[in-house]
Amino acid sequence: MKRTVVDNEIVIVGGGICGLATALALHRKRIKSLVLEKSEELRATGAAIIVQANGWHALDQLGVGSILRQTAIQIHGGKFISLSEDESKEAPFGINGEFRCLKRTDLIKAIANCLPHETIRTGCQVLSIELDPVTKYPQLLLSNGSILQAKVVIGCDGVNSMVSNMVSLHPTKLLRFSTCVARGFTKYQNDHQFPSEFVMISRGQVQLGRIPITDKLVYWFVTRLSTSQDSIISKDPVLIRRSLLESIEDFPVHAMDMIHNCKLSSLHLTDLKYRPPWDLLLNRFNKGTTVVAGDAMHATGPFMAQGGSTSIEDAIVLARCLAEKMDNTTDAIAERNDIEEAFDKYAKERRMRIFWLSLNTFLVGKRLDTKSCIVRSIVFAMVFVLFRDPDGHSRYNCGTL
Ligand SMILES: Cc1cc2nc3c(=O)[nH]c(=O)nc-3n(C[C@H](O)[C@H](O)[C@H](O)COP(=O)(O)OP(=O)(O)OC[C@H]3O[C@@H](n4cnc5c(N)ncnc54)[C@H](O)[C@@H]3O)c2cc1C
Q: FAD-binding domain spans which residues (predicted)?
C-alpha cells in the first residue's frame, strides 16, 4: 500500500458548496487546505439554488457576492396561487432583503476560481478515516489505496456523510419525507416576460415554484408525493418530464409550457432525506480534530431553501474559529487542544442556528407530507407559535470572516 504524508494540514472531504466554501474561507484567512472530491469533476446537481439575505452576507464574506450578483436578477416579492375546483386564490408575500436564484454551476465556479490551483483534487474518494495511534491525528484511506495524514479533517461529504458517522455519538439515522422534488431550467429564446417574483402555484399536495434567474432563464421546481415508480423515473429525464406534466395537468398553460419546454439535461427528481432536528441538539459535531459541516452536519429538506446558505455560514464560522486558534505552536498536544477548542466554539455557535432552521424545515415539510387536515392544522399552529417571524431564518447574520 502506498503511503503519502501531506504537508497540507487541513483536508476537506467533499467538493460541494460547503467543501469549496470552507476551502475559500480558510484561504482568505491564509490557511492552506486540500479538497478531496470523489467525482471526476466538480458537480452541480439540481439546476439552481435560492440564496436569501443570510446567504448573500456569507457570500460577501467569501468575496464572491459581487461576481455572483451579475449572474442573477434580484427577486422583489412573491405570490402564492392556490388552485381549487371552483376558484383560484392569490396571496402576495414579501421578501426580506436580497433574494436571488443562482445557477449552481455559477456558484461552484465562482468559489472554485478563487482557490489556488492545487487546492482541489477530483476523482479522489475517501473510504475511511482512522486515528493514528501514535500522533492521534486522522489518517484517510483513499480509493487509490494511498493514505493521507492530516492534522484536521473537515467532513463536507453531504447527506450520506461517512465522516459524520465517524464523529457522531451514534450512527446517523436519516429519515425521508414522503414528498419528492423535481427541479429544472427553462430557457426562452426571447425574454420570458415573467415579473421578477417568486411564484408558488399549488393544488392539493402538488406545488410548483417559479423563479426567474435572468430575462431568458427560469428555474422551477415541483413537489409532489413520492410514488413507487420514482426510482425508475428519476433515471430518465424524459420520464421525469412526463410524470411532472401529469402531476400539473390542471395548472395554468404557461406552467405546463414551461415544463414542456424545459432543458432536459437540467432535470432531476430527488427523494428527500433529512437528519431529525432533535439529533442536532444532542449529537457531537467533532471527534478530536475531525469535524463536520454542511449537509454532513445538518441535512434538512429543501422547504426553506436554506441548506446551501447555511453550509456557507458553517464555512465562515469554522474558518474564523480555526484561524483564531491555529498559531504556530510547536507543541503537538497544545496544538491538538487548540484545534479541539476551535471546534467546540464552532459547534457552540452553530448548534442552535441549525437546530431552529431544521425544526422549521421539518414542520413545513410535514405540512406538505400529510393528507390529514388535523395533522396539518397542528403543524400550522406549531409553526405559527414557534416561528412568528416567517423571515427570521434569513435575518440571521453569521458575522465577519
Ligand atoms: C431538491 C433540493 C432543493 C434545494 N434547494 C436549495 C435552495 O434553493 N437553497 C439552498 O440554500 N439550499 C437548497 N438545497 C440544499 C443544498 O443543495 C444543500 O444543502 C447543499 O448542496 C449542501 O452542500 P454540501 O457541500 O454540504 O453537500 P453536497 O452538495 O452534497 O456535496 C458533497 C460532496 O462531497 C462529495 N463526497 C461525498 N462523499 C465523499 C467521499 N467519501 N470522498 C470524497 N468526496 C465525497 C460528493 O461527491 C459531493 O460533491 C436544496 C436541496 C435539495 C435536495
A: 9-330
What DSSP string runs through 85-152? Answer: SS-EEEEEEE--S--EEEEHHHHHHHHHHTS-GGGEE-S--EEEEEE-TTT--EEEEETTS-EEE-SE
Q: pLDDT at position 329, please?
A: 66
Q: What is the mean pLDDT of residues 101-126?
A: 96
Yes or no: say if 251 and 225 are a contact pair by the CB < 8 Å rule.
no
Q: How far apart are CA 61 and CA 55, in angstroms?
A: 10
Q: Is 209 in the pocket of ligand 1 (CB under 6 A)?
A: no
Nearest to 34 by CA among 146, 152, 159, 129: 152
Hunting for cell 466554501 — which residue is that? 21
237 CB within 6 A, ligand 1: no
More confident residue, 134 or 19: 19
Domain span at residue 258 reads 176-273
Same domain membership, residue 310 and residue 170: yes
Largest CA distance in the chain: 74
CATH number, domain containing residue 137: 3.50.50.60
What average pLDDT does the segment 180-196 reach? 94
User: Is residue 2 predicted with pLDDT exceeding 80?
Assistant: no
